[in-house]
Amino acid sequence: MNKYSMSLLAASVLAAGAVQAADDFSIGAGLDYMYSDMDGSAEGTDRNYSSNSLWTTYVDFRHPLLMVPNAVFQATDVSSDASDFDNKLKTYDFALYYSPLELDTLTLNAGLNLRSYDGTLNHDHDYSNDTIMLYGAAETLIPGTDLGAFADMRVSHWDGDHSHDWKMGVSYVVFPDDILKLKLRAGYRNMRVNYTEDGVQLDQHMDNWFLGAELRY
Q1: What pLDDT shows up at residue 28?
Q2: Which listed residue, 12, 41, 111, 121, has the most CB atoms within 10 A of its CB?
Q3: pLDDT tens for residues 24-65?
């Protein structure tokens, strides 16, 4: 599927969800941690990467304004190192989304995500690039409990960029009746960075279990 077709599909989903609105203003901030092995190639060579800690921070803003999308910002450190190779890389994701389905126990989100890459290769080669990805998320709450399940994904498949980033897991709200709610999260994350720009070639894959926490007001 080419870039135009995927953009058209995403626009259709956004239009369908534009008439939906969240019940309240809400802002959440979270932190996820994953310790993961990495495989794949860099600069055309398969590497024996060291295991790395992947930290992800995010801020999610929801509101009841019709036709105005919600927004979520996410930053992840996906740096890697191997013999004679060092790559300091961060990804910054900014997604605008609507909720075409929003029930008491189930919410579905769909939108577009702008991903920015910002890296330094082998200490002296700075590089950066932006790409558009499709964004989707789902969250459900088990009736009568404070337990839930969630999933989200970002995916691109055009112009040689076949990157993806998806995770799924379970959650538990520690203080469900407080204005400031604490949610604990645990799950599985799978991420592929496929980047060919500015004289840099990366095709790296990482996946593992992760732990996280979110505060929402």
Answers
A1: 96
A2: 111
A3: 799 999 999 999 889 999 888 999 999 889 999 999 999 988
| Cα atoms in the Cβ-side hemisphere of radius 13 Å centred on 143 | 3
DSSP class of residue 158 equals B
Domain ranges of the chain: 3-216
Q: What is the CATH number of domain 3-216?
A: 2.40.160.20
Mean pLDDT of 125-129: 92
HSE, side-chain direction, 13 A CA sphere, residue 98: 18
Query: pTM (2 decimals)?
Result: 0.85
Task: Report the alpha-carbon distance of residue 127 to residue 106 in Å, rounded.
Answer: 40
Contacts for 48-52 with beta carbons within 8 Å, 24 or more apart? 48/82, 48/83, 49/80, 49/81, 49/82, 49/204, 50/80, 50/81, 50/82, 52/79, 52/80, 52/81, 52/206
Helix or strand or coil: residue 140? Answer: strand
Q: Report which DSSP code applies to 180.
A: S
Give the Cα separation of 132 and 121 in Å (integer): 23
Is a pLDDT exceeding 60 seen at residue 23?
A: no
Tokens 């593992």 appear where?
Answer: 208
Contacts of 27 by beta carbon, 8 Å cutoff, 6+ apart: 59, 60, 61, 62, 216, 217
